[in-house]
Each structure stands twice: as structure tokens, then as C-alpha cells.
Amino acid sequence: MEVLKSPLSASQKGKLISAGYTSINLLSSVSPSHLALELKISEAEALEILKTVSDGSRSESTSTSCTIVKGAQSAWDMLQEEETLVRITTSSSDFDNILGGGISCKEVTEIGGVPGIGKTQLGIQLAVNVQIPFDYGGLGGKAIYIDTEGSFMVERALQIAEACGDDMAEYSRLYRKGFHSHEVKIQPKDFLENIFYFRVCSYTEQIALINYLDKFITDHKDVKVVIIDSITFHFRQDFDDMALRTRLLGGMALKLMKLARKFGVAVVVLNQVTTKYSDGSFHLALALGDSWSHASTNRIILHWNGNERYAYIDKSPSLRSASAPYSVTGKGIRDSPSNNKRIKNI
Amino acid sequence: MTPENLLHRPTHTQYCTLGCPILDAFLGGGIPCNSITELVAESGCGKTQLSLQLLFTAQLPLHLNGLSASSLYLYSEYPFPNRRLDQLVESFRSSHPILFASSRDPRDYIFTRNCQTAQDLLDVLLLLESRLEKPKETRLDIKLIVIDSIAALFRSDFDNNPADLKRRSSLFFKISSILKSHARRRGIAIVVTNQVVDSMDDNNGSSGVRVGNLESMYTSGRRVLPALGLSWANCVNSRLFLSRHEVIEGVENGLPDSDYSGYVSRRKRRELHVVFAPHLPHSSCEFVILRDGVFGVDECL
């Protein structure tokens, strides 16, 4: 429908046409504030125009979908979508259990812990596990690994990939004796080929890379996980202007969330821990401050308990807070051996 | 920006040998290039011994698992261990007579520089950048940087107040970042030594703050922690811990007799532990310090 035929006042029509809006359909994805800026009118008036236009177009077309708020979804649709949501296994069943099946796609998950607790190990494990094919209950995707600390070791990734390939061979031997077509084992080097590795040496590079990811994932649609190991390192040096740091981090967090939603990728952000002084005592907190804690949808803290490693869900909109032991073995992340013993004893 | 293809990288990171097959096997090949390895120990455990030895082994050709390059030794603890270096030159010459004939002195390929303050170290590292670009002109074809020790630089100049601590940890990250960018650009192996502090809390209560597995962090019967705290621990890629214990051996009468010490021989048992490393499990290995250098002890023998 053309603007000229719409039930708007003549001056409004004039403004719209001179701004280039000749058809009402063009207005469907315009926000009121944007329109107000473009036509140099008040926001209230812009809203009025959009309302009139949408009423007009609704009476004309029979479709019930509201075109004016583009991209809106009902909660029911979202629930159905979430049920089909795939998760990336951590290779530890206890850890997967508290996560509701694994690291969820479309969300930003932050994982923090002291040095040596296994953050990098978990990162490499996820980069490998995301490649498990559909037939084996995986995603069959690729991984982006952004290394800011230089802790990524190729031979370690190779070890974990080998173990993952062995596990898959074992699985097919046990459960699909008849299917010989699935016998083709993924070679460890294939796993490595599907990890896009970026080494980042400064915070400007880090921000530039995250801005670039949108384009990169558009070109590589099969990327299903983005791992940043760690988000923190370059932001802990020499920031005199803390307000600037907060702004940069905030912008980065928004972009990561957008990536997660837009492409349905799991964004895994590894963070360091620091001591925080409050109420006269020191205690442990994830680095980058309070404003950053809003940046992630889920927060998992890895910590020591006695001689065991534990994962604890600190924040999540859908998961209850729980903790589970896990261990880091030669094969990668696995269940804690003592936990298995306990179950056997019972 | 294009991602690196992991297959085009050499599947195995380059390692610098420690000059001892047992220790090399224990560390998965030696000290990895492109990464920061920290050696933590109380004084007299062999930090400097091990780092001096590395200055020599880095010069070995690639087929002997060396880096075939010079090394840089930045020291902050005085005096410079000249006598020990001379001893090692001799033993090194006798073990590799062809490579280091009398015309070629291994000391020509070891560069040293003292650093008194953290700022000093930062300046040296910044200046190094332009020098490393032209290895032929400056003769600085460096593949190994040893900083002995990082703790000495930071333990005196900073007060225990929030402003200083913040400045200190910001410096940690800055130094670490420069080191890592050197390491990355030129494939340099970086070794940093660190001191220890006594651990004050007896209970395991503060399990959140602890780094790595505490069990191994005993030396001379005391529980210790690496100096410089949590934020520095975030700056290194691998942490190795050297411990020393006095063990009583050779008790022949069953009961050690304090009056007659002839039957009791005390021996220092030194161990090297992996506290954390991206490529190694938590493990430990015994070693000895001899005149010719640091060597691992095979547990089976």
C-alpha cells in the first residue's frame, strides 16, 4: 500500500515521502525513535504514524502476524524452540547433568576458576565435542577458538581429539553392530581442521576480532561454538580509565549475546578469578567487576573441594544452582573417579 | 583476520631440552616455546641451577632437541652466578666436544642483563622488541628468555595498600602480555622463576583461593605458596614447583641412634612437580643437582 493512500494527515504524508518512505511496508521494521530522528518530529508523533499505518495495513491484510514488531516471538514459540535446542556435552556426565545436558547453544556461558583448575582443558574439550556428528548425538559443527593467553597446546587438543574418536568408535561397536556404514572413524586431524584458531595479542585486536566474528560466522555457517580463552587477560593490564574498560566490555558482551542469538552458536567465555575486598575480608570473585557479571547468561565457577575439582552453577535463568565433581584426565574432561566409586558402593 | 589452520602448525610445539632425557620425558619434551613456564621454589632448591642449564641447552642444535639459538638471562638477584656458569661451561664442553670446540665459547651466546625494578624489566622487554626484529644485526637471535627472579622485583617496591596492589597486578599483566607477544612472534620459550611465601592458614578452608593441588606444595617440611599471589598465577601458562625434603636413609640398626650418627645418613630429596600446565597432568619427578648440572632420577632404578 502506498503512503499516499494511507489515512495519515497530509503533512505527515509529505514528510514520509520526502524521507523516502513511499510504501507502508517500508515502515514495518522502523523503530519510532529512528523515524522521529529521520522526519525531525517528536517521538510521540512518530509512534502515532506507525500506529495508524499498522492499523491500516492490518485491516487490509488478513495475516495475524504482527509485522510492526519484527522478530517478536511468543513465549510458547520460544519454549518449543528451546526444546529443540542442542547442547554440547562436556564429556562428564555429572557436569552435563547440572547443565541440563551440556553447554547450551544460543546462550553466553561464562566459566571461571583459579589457574590450573581446567578452564583451558574444558575449552579444548568443547571445541572437540562440538564436532561429534549427529549420528552420535552431537552437533556436527565447527569451533572458533580465540586464545588470548597462549595456553592452547596443539598436542593436547590432539590427545583429546583422539580420545573422543576412540569413544565414538567404542559407541558404534557397542550399539550399532549392524551398521557398517558408520564405521568410518573421524581422524584426530579432522578434529583439528575444524577448529578455527585465533591468537589475539592485545585488547584492540580482541575487540576487532569479535566485531569480525559476525561476518566470519556468516561465511562459515557450521560454526556452533565460540570459545574465548580468556576474555580477561588483556583487560587486566593498565586500564587507568575504568569507565572506558566497562564500556568496552559492555559493548563486547552485547556483541557476543547477539552472535549467540543470531547464529544459534554457543558462546563460551572463560574468565579468571580475583580476590574481592568487602565487609573487611577478602573473598574470591570472577574478574572484571560487577558490571561484567551481567554479560553472561550462565555463570559456572570451577573450584577445588579437597582434592577434587567441582563445577558450580552460580547464575542461570533456567538451571538450579548445583555443583558436580569432574576430573581432568589424559583423555580430557571426565567424571570424577571418586564419584563413580560412591555410586557403586550404594 | 584469518584463523590459523591447526594442521599447518607443527603438530608438536617446539620444546627446549633440559639436557636430561628423564626430565625431558617428564615434561613432555622440555620447556615449551611460545609459552611462559614458571619455576617456583624456596631458595636453594635449584631454580637458578635449572635456568642456567637451560641457557646452555637452548644452544644445542635442533636434532638434539635444543633451539639452536642464543638465550637471554635477566637477573634481579645478586650476585650473578659466574662461578657456576664457568663450571657448567666445562661440563657442557666435555659432553658436547664437537659442537663446542675451544674456538666457540657457549658464553658468547648467553646475553645477560640485570634488572633492579619492575619498571626496569618492563623497559628492557620493550626495547627488546625492536632488537629482536633484526636478529642478524644485533646478534640477538634469541629463543629463550629467563627471568630470575620475578619475585625479587615485586616484593620490595610495593606497599600493602589497595592502590599499590592494583598497580602491581596491572604491571604483572603488562609484563606477561609483552612476554607472550615476544614468545608468539618469534617462538621464544620463556622461563620465569618465582619465590615462595609460607602458607599461613593450616586448614584447607580457603580452597577457593588455592591454585593447583596443594599436596605437593611442601618443601623442607613447610607448606608454602608461590609468591605474588593469584593475579600473577593468571599470567603464566605452566607452573612447576621444586621441592626439597630431608630424608633419613641407610638406617642399619632399625632405630636411628642420635649419638652414633654413622649409621644415619641424611640425604636431600629434591622433586619437581607440575602444579598446572595446559599439556601436562599433575605429577612429580625426583631430581638431583650434580656438578655437571641438574638431572632427573629414574624411579625404577
Automatic annotation (TrEMBL), chain A:
Region listing for Disordered, in residue ranges: 322-346
Domain of life the protein comes from: Eukaryota
Localization per Swiss-Prot or TrEMBL: Nucleus
Swiss-Prot/TrEMBL keywords: ATP-binding, DNA damage, DNA recombination, DNA repair, DNA-binding, Nucleotide-binding, Nucleus
Xref: InterPro entries: DNA_recomb/repair_RecA-like (IPR016467), HR_Repair_Mediator (IPR052093), P-loop_NTPase (IPR027417), Rad51_C (IPR013632), RecA_ATP-bd (IPR020588)
A GO MF term: ATP binding
GO biological process assignments: meiotic DNA recombinase assembly; reciprocal meiotic recombination
Domain called RecA family profile: residue spans: 84-273
GO cellular component: Rad51B-Rad51C-Rad51D-XRCC2 complex; Rad51C-XRCC3 complex; replication fork
Pfam families documented for this protein: Rad51 (PF08423)
Protein function: Involved in the homologous recombination repair (HRR) pathway of double-stranded DNA breaks arising during DNA replication or induced by DNA-damaging agents.
Family, as annotated: Belongs to the RecA family. RAD51 subfamily.
Entry protein name: DNA repair protein RAD51 homolog 3
Organism name: Lactuca sativa (Garden lettuce)
TrEMBL record, chain B:
Record flagged with keyword Disulfide bond: no
Record has DNA repair as a keyword: yes
Gene Ontology annotations for the cellular component aspect, listed alphabetically: Rad51C-XRCC3 complex; replication fork
Record-annotated RecA family profile domain positions: 12-196
Cellular localisation: Nucleus
One Pfam entry name: Rad51
Chief location: nucleus
InterPro entries named among the record's database cross-references: DNA_recomb/repair_RecA-like, P-loop_NTPase, Rad51_C, RecA_ATP-bd, XRCC3-like_C
GO molecular function, one term: ATP binding
Keywords, sorted A to Z: ATP-binding, DNA damage, DNA repair, Nucleotide-binding, Nucleus
Alphabetical list of Gene3D superfamilies matching this protein: P-loop containing nucleotide triphosphate hydrolases
Gene Ontology biological-process annotations: double-strand break repair via synthesis-dependent strand annealing; resolution of mitotic recombination intermediates; t-circle formation; telomere maintenance via recombination
Protein name: RecA family profile 1 domain-containing protein
Organism: Lactuca sativa
Biological classification of the source: Eukaryota, Viridiplantae, Streptophyta, Embryophyta, Tracheophyta
